[in-house]
Design brief:
Oligomer: single chain
Mean pLDDT: 81
Low-confidence stretches: none
Largest sheet: none
Helix content: over 70%
Length: 148
């Protein structure tokens, strides 16, 4: 318990002189650092397998990311999918091995069925605005589309 109090006191001592504006200025990436960042990214990717193809893959994904950024796609869902995707795939494979390939086993309990229904509802409701906007654009009408 004493370590908790000592840690809090040190956090207060460190954070009083460092106002939030200083943290924001420290997190800013200056444009002069971009070539160095790109160099170290390419160096790190090349040093994993010593393969030039990996550098081209990084360039392609960088261009895709730039296009997504310019068109307003958020990066957080992509990163979450990239990080959590392998874990979800491994656990789905494990569940299917336990159930001997029976997919209905995934929704057999009330809790899992509730989560599957809630996930489907979230996906359908999030797509509703995009579908309405696309339908309005196809019909050429100026219908009132719900905005996010």
């Amino acid at each position: 318990m004493a370590g908790f109090w000592i840690g809090n006191v040190f956090c207060l001592i460190l954070n009083f002189p460092l106002r939030p504006g200083i943290w924001v200025r420290m997190l800013r990436i200056y444009y002069a650092l971009y070539p160095a960042i790109l160099f170290f990214i390419c160096l790190g990717v090349y040093s994993i397998n010593y393969n030039v193809f990996d550098i081209f893959v990084v360039i392609v994904f960088g261009l895709i990311g730039t296009g997504m950024l310019r068109h307003g796609f958020p990066a957080a869902p992509l990163l979450l999918g990239f990080i959590l995707g392998p874990m979800i795939e491994e656990n789905l494979r494990r569940a299917l091995l336990i159930s001997r390939g029976d997919v209905s086993y995934l929704g057999s309990s009330m809790v899992s069925a509730g989560f599957l229904i809630a996930s489907a509802l979230v996906i359908v409701l999030s797509m509703r605005g995009g579908i309405a906007a696309a339908a309005g654009a196809l019909l050429g009408g100026k219908e009132d589309v719900p905005s996010e």
